[in-house]
Amino acid sequence: MKRRLFAVFSFVAVLFALGLGLGYSSASAKTQQTYTIGTDVTFPPFEFANDQNKYVGIDMDLMRAIAKDQGFKVNIKPLGFNAAVQATQSGQIDGVIAGMSITKERAATFDFSNPYFTSGVVMAVAKNSKITDLNALKGKRVAVKTGTSGADYANSIKNKYGFKVVTFDDSNNMYEDVTTGNSVACFEDSPVMRYAIQQGSKLKIVTKPAESGSYGFAVKKGQNKALLTAFNRGLANLKKNGQYDKITERYLGKDSTAKPADDRSFLGLLKQNKGALWDGFVETLWLTVVSIFFATLFGVIVGLMGVVPSKFINGASTTLIYIFRGLPLLVLALFIYTGIPSLTGQKIPAFVAGVITLMFNEGAYIAAFVKGGINAVDHGQMEAARSLGLPFGKSMRKVILPQGIKIMVPSFINQFIITLKDTSILSIIGLLELTQTGKIIIARNLEGFKVWTIVAVIYLVVITLLTWLSNWVQRRTKI
Amino acid sequence: MSETKAKIKVDNLVKNYGDNAVLKGINLEVKNNEVVVIIGPSGSGKSTLLRTLNKLEEPTGGSIVVDGYDIAKPDTDINKVRENIGMVFQHFNLFNNLTVGENITLAPLELKKEAPKQATEHAHSLLQMVGLESKFDARVQSLSGGQQQRVAIARALAMKPDVMLFDEPTSALDPEMVGDVLAVMKDLAKQGMTMVVVTHEMGFAKEVADRVIFVDDGQILEEGTPDELFGHPKHPRLQDFLNKILNV
């Protein structure tokens, strides 16, 4: 059910949290115990960053309320689901609360609290749909999100009810597919679906939760008994005094009265998310600049390897270009981010993996036109330089490269623009750049069309500026 | 160095491109201060022969000794040997990114570590010699073909070589430009420069060459003084060749 790791964000968050934690513990160590609790990066309505980039949601609010009730402090780390679970197992953090289903397998390595939430898969249809049960799905198309229990459930019953399953990568696209009528229904965990409806998705839930399961707070087996006891006690108190209902109602209630009505116009969305969008924008620029730097370095070296007088080195250059230009960027990114750590056992931060990916991919294209640019310089220029006694390297530097670079300038500019756009693909490894920021904002407010429009306009503005800058540079270099 | 000592000595030089034999065992000696003109039909291998003399073409077999260095050997520092061999190309090959002056001073500054002032003065005097003194700061592209070729000769001379190789230096020029370039080459010959010239300018060959070599099909078919070759050609292919080019 939990899938994505937003590792870079987590990394920054961990640093931040550590910083905060250190500051805190020295200030108030004498009275209150501080526990470090891991959670997922985005799993609305249980945990997600709100428009002030503060982590909220049912899990978050519950945890904080219980801590307050029981007199301890929590330090929440949005590590991503898998990382949070592993960090708990290895004892780096005290516990994990992340919409985690209580299962027998997990109970072997974790001690779970009493269940704090009961979930189950429900079916939702468009508001004006006449479908009310599974039998009406025969021959129809149904939307699910990859890796969710809704998808598992739909696949397990599709033959019985005779419907076809289409899979989407994120919730917003899945809901859209139903509201536009491409699919007649979708399957998702009931709290996730109720949150979507509360956020304004034009859907209605028509079935009772199936395959229901319970969520629990988990600590490492045999450890942190006091924390677990406190959690259970606090949970019981909250249920008794009505705070529990208030929290769940805040995220699942039919009318979002608990919140002031959001302004969902373009300007409103821009205002609410300007912090996140700005951060995403800066990350995109930063990623672009660093990647262009290394890609240029890699590309120029490999390009030059393609023109030196050595068959072996020429072959190495051709091979490198062939491999890295031949691999789809997406595959390369996933291979470097997830494949290499599983080979070496060494985790790579997403930012580094992203830069390496772009360095190889964009670098291969740069190498190709560096090689081409040098080869485009009249062969006689090199012969004349060499016949004067100038060594190969010197001839290259003094005569060939100055002419080749002029030929390459337009290609370089083009490649820089492509690099900027290609950073968006790195959202796949969880880099919190502009596209990923858009995805996260949409995961929260489900305003896909408007948010993507905003993101698209930001890209266009940056690319326009970059193009102007490039044209200016190009004019300057044309002597 | 004595007058008779060989400046260039080529023994059994073979050059193949894959299965295609371009040079089939060339033996050649060029003495100090000698002007040797190589003639022959196109595709005969005469340009390839010239280009192996400074290793722009890698020889397949045989030996090429220039100034006592066997440049066919892989461990010879070819860059060092090339400093003493000037080369002039059919298409001039002036460095397009540099001015006329920079073209001439580049190699002396980089390789001889000459002081900039000295290199510049030398360049000016070379430009004067080729009749282009006013063009020191000109861009290469602003020159005519004949002017470019004269700058190319000045560039080669800037390294103070003791051999000059000319690879069809006038073939790419408009007819009215040819005279200026040939005049510079004649001057050089008079000053005692050792020269190997591939050309179709038979007038130049007759007037300036100490020796003329006729190359066809990768072999030297005949060699001798200009009088011998042009006046009394023996080989039927040379007779045929001369007939063709002299009776246009």
TrEMBL record, chain A:
Residues 281-470 form the ABC transmembrane type-1 domain. GO terms for biological process: amino acid transport. It is found in: Cell membrane. Belongs to the binding-protein-dependent transport system permease family. It comes from Secundilactobacillus kimchicus JCM 15530. PROSITE patterns: ABC_TM1 (PS50928). The lineage of its organism: Bacteria, Bacillati, Bacillota, Bacilli, Lactobacillales. Coiled coil: none annotated. This is Polar amino acid ABC transporter inner membrane subunit. Residues 1-29 form the signal peptide. SUPFAM superfamilies: MetI-like, Periplasmic binding protein-like II. GO terms for molecular function: ligand-gated monoatomic ion channel activity. The keyword Ribonucleoprotein does not apply. It is a multi-pass membrane protein. InterPro entries: AA_ABC_transptr_permease_3TM, ArtM/GltK/GlnP/TcyL/YhdX-like, Iontro_rcpt_C, MetI-like, MetI-like_sf, Solute-binding_3/MltF_N. One of its GO terms (cellular component) is ATP-binding cassette (ABC) transporter complex. The chain crosses the membrane at residues 285-308, 320-338, 350-370, 449-469. Keywords: Cell membrane, Membrane, Signal, Transmembrane, Transmembrane helix, Transport.
From TrEMBL, chain B:
Pfam families: ABC_tran. Keywords: ATP-binding, Nucleotide-binding, Transport. Residues 8-242 form the ABC transporter domain. Gene3D superfamilies: P-loop containing nucleotide triphosphate hydrolases (3.40.50.300). GO terms for molecular function: ABC-type amino acid transporter activity; ATP binding; ATP hydrolysis activity. InterPro entries: AAA+_ATPase (IPR003593), ABC_ATPase_HisP-typ (IPR030679), ABC_transporter-like_ATP-bd (IPR003439), ABC_transporter-like_CS (IPR017871), MetN_ABC_transporter-like (IPR050086), P-loop_NTPase (IPR027417). PROSITE patterns: ABC_TRANSPORTER_1 (PS00211), ABC_TRANSPORTER_2 (PS50893). CDD domains: ABC_HisP_GlnQ. It comes from the Bacteria. PANTHER family: AMINO ACID IMPORT ATP-BINDING PROTEIN (PTHR43166), ARGININE TRANSPORT ATP-BINDING PROTEIN ARTM (PTHR43166:SF37). This is Phosphonate-transporting ATPase.
